[in-house]
Amino acid sequence: MVTSAHRVSSSRKKVQNYRDRLRALGLRPVQIWALDTRTAAFAEQAHRQSLAVAKSSQAGEDQAFIDALAEDLPA
Questions:
Q1: Can you list the alpha helix ranges (DSSP code H) found in the chain?
Q2: CB-neighbour burial class of residue 56 (10 A; exposed 0-12, middle 13-18, buried 19+)
Q3: When comparing pLDDT for 12 and 73, which is higher?
């Protein structure tokens, strides 16, 4: 019978071994916190900003810049 404490210990060991292998390859862990794009607040702010850009006197130049960048992206 496998105890809960044994499973936790086994999982920790597997994670530690995985991290050790990655470090041996010259990698290091990095944690990044990003905005949650699923929230209503994010959608509202994105909408406000997109309207501000669209109403800008430089909207055409801005869109041309984005289009030029998009041409270089893989399909």
A1: 4-24, 40-54, 59-71
A2: exposed
A3: 12
